[in-house]
């Protein structure tokens, strides 16, 4: 296997499909969001991407069956005839950071493939590492073209999540969430990256929920968030316990202040 | 040498050959098992695989003769006309873990080559690292397709070794033992991986013997295990001495318990 | 993206253009010099170079717009009809040192590209790391062909900067500043490398100014250095403060000498 | 530059030329030997090898002239009409150990090139690291084919240097000195590797002399060793001083023994 290869099981006719990416990364935010979307939409798998740039191993799945590391393509056909269809990609891994050229090669293969189905718009999902969190995770947005800021802001009006746009330059988006937009731009595609604030060290279903709320608002989809919300509650519980532990540790170091209220943050 | 290359010395006609892999790895289990199989069957070498992904050196063999690092292909023709033939691969090294794409390239070349001889079934052999061992090493099995679990379990009925099949997913098989199955699946091949439990830090002939007992049961072969058993006895002796040393060290740390029996394990 | 790729927006007719390189490196000297040159000449961007050997990320620019890492080509047409034109390259990064072959590939693409516009002469700009500095940074020069030493020395007569030429061999020029000359020589091009002495750990506008004074002398250009001089003054102020801090530290370690004058150097 | 490339300045007609390699390695033994041979034979340079697998830099040579890292091919025509000619390769570096495939690629290019001139026999020269040395460095020999042991032993009869041949397998020859033989074998070439014992941390002209005495014996050449012997004397002087320092350090640690003689070794 000299290059990444895509095994195609079906070639559905798709209507102006939007390509949504959710691969493993910070807090597994993108992957959780993609898996929930696939589950709720009953999206159908239609292709597997294998790559010599993935780890040289097989995973042991249920019942002792082995599989190479891979990324998976799913499609969803909008029941509304005038609506747009969706292609979602998720999977076992991204190319490791030690193999930059391999990362470009894999993302190039993804874009060439979804281009065959008429994809023009790309939405990438992931986590954005922050040192502390207060309340619901916000979503940081970035686009391929400046005119899209207003476009997506209009689409996001009324969204229950805080979507942040920055004026000053600074920072980077590493991996597929960034490369898909950067390389997509060179193929005349366009799109937006939505990264949920995350502490990074936990499986962050809260951040995934925030990101998915923004995505579904943009696409005009109604999505049952229950399963993700349950995972999110587990996440909140873990965060709360960590917060208590931290406070207890601090109190051992400092004299207690009178009436120290629960600030509700880490 | 831009790609791995196979030098073919002979092109035997083989009957539905099974491809058995035993390359260097944990405890050298796979390699020991393959070398013993080759020796007992008097298998004939018919090809060498060289690769730019192997170490950039030559080994000094007997009588000051140098050789590039390589993998070797052997064949065995079944004296039973209705029986199946065997191709075995063993060798000096696998591709190092720092060169994942190189690993895929080499395994791809192996599969393309054995495909020319009609190989459809693959059996990979290796070690499975465990922190401690009790009694005979068990063999962990994994397959390319779910329906093969039952198939191999039937073939293994009566095997003197414990072959373990797992229901839950988890873990991975790194290197050729895994890649041959994962990539073989993409070439419409099928097979099983048999990994013998091993502590990993010794040349583990006991684990090699366990694996080979499972392999020969599957293939319906009778194999004289004497040479391997002698190596296995040496292994047991080493293990026993290590165990005594460990017990002595523990006793220095704890008060001795009355009548401490020899539990026979590390 | 398997190879580096250049997106060309315009193909200007250029007259015997000299190719000037100023990419990120020691003290950012080359990049600062190139950016100032582009700004003062009002050079026009006409191509972008993208590469799978650059970092696998996008940068977040103003207004949340993302861009792949890239190098940029600018041209300037000399208002004097008998004068020579200029192509300048600057950008976000060079290929990281862990990917030597990638560095050769990218520089090869740059040379092939500028060759299409008739480039024969190359001037590379960068920093040269020194442990301490006294007064204005000098500029170390090196050429592709021995006969060019005298040629550039004549061109530099009267230059306000000290340009140093060495007789003894020793040292190396790492990265694009060196490779462009070395590989350019193989394409029958010629040129000079001008490296400004720099402590390396600061954004060194003083060194950039020294290098640009040498470049403009060679090209017979008048350049307004004000903006760079202002940055250079900031650099001097930083250097002076570091010097004071160092002197204070030394005094704490040694008994003070009577009448210790300000030697004005680090 | 995607592949290594050889710039050829002349294509001499050579008579059954032997290819002698002396590239940088342990103790710089091979390179010193090659450079001395080139100097004494007045060998003529006829080709340069450049490679993207060499370091991404240029070296600064005399008079500020820069050059890419390279390997150089020299030829010598034997004044004896029935004698054999010689091709020698030496240079700035070998491919670094982190780039194994690159090493194979470069050596492959070397072999393809010298094959064009009818090379069949290869002699590689280098250092063999030992922890201590006594007297003159011996030379360890290894060959491509078993029948060559006797062949080279006969050629070496009367050689003033101790050439060692081993019966047991073990060890490896890393880099070009090994790869040229291993890969040469696959191209139906044959040859011998001659490695001089060296402590490794000094520029070892003594070991280079030992190796060259063996090479010239094999080729039936008379070579003036004066220049190398002078360098060798410098090496001996350094070794003797190191030995004195070591003895002094040991004496400080142990009570002095009566009448401790000069054992003359490290």
From TrEMBL, chains A, B, C, D:
Keywords: Coiled coil, Proteasome. One of its GO terms (cellular component) is proteasome complex. The keyword Coiled coil applies. It comes from the Archaea. InterPro entries: MJ1210-like (IPR004426), Proteasome_assmbl_chaperone_2 (IPR019151), PSMG2_sf (IPR038389). Residues 218-248 form a coiled coil. This is Proteasome assembly chaperone family protein.
């Amino acid at each position: 296997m000299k290059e990444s290869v895509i095994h195609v099981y079906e070639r559905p006719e798709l209507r102006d499909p939007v390509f949504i990416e959710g691969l493993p990364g910070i807090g597994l935010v993108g992957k959780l969001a993609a898996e929930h979307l696939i589950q709720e939409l009953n999206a159908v798998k239609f292709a597997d991407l294998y790559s010599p740039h993935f780890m040289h191993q097989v995973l042991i799945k249920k019942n002792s069956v082995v599989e190479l590391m891979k990324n998976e393509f799913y499609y969803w056909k909008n029941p509304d005839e005038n609506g747009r269809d969706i292609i979602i990609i998720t999977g076992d891994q991204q190319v490791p950071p030690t193999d930059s050229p391999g990362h470009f090669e894999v993302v190039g293969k993804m874009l060439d493939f979804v281009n065959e189905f008429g994809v023009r718009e790309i939405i990438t999902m992931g986590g954005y590492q922050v040192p502390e969190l207060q309340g619901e995770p916000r979503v940081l947005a970035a686009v391929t073209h400046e005119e899209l800021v207003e476009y997506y802001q209009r689409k996001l009006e009324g969204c229950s999540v805080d979507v942040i746009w920055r004026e000053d330059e600074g920072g980077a988006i590493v991996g597929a969430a960034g490369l898909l937009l950067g390389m997509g731009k060179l193929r005349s595609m366009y799109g937006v990256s939505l990264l949920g604030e995350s502490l990074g060290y936990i499986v962050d279903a809260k951040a995934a929920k925030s990101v998915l709320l923004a995505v579904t608002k943009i696409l005009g989809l109604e999505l049952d968030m229950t399963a993700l919300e349950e995972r999110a509650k587990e996440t909140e519980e873990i965060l709360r316990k960590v917060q208590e532990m931290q406070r207890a540790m601090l109190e051992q170091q400092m004299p207690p202040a009178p009436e120290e209220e629960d600030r509700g943050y880490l």
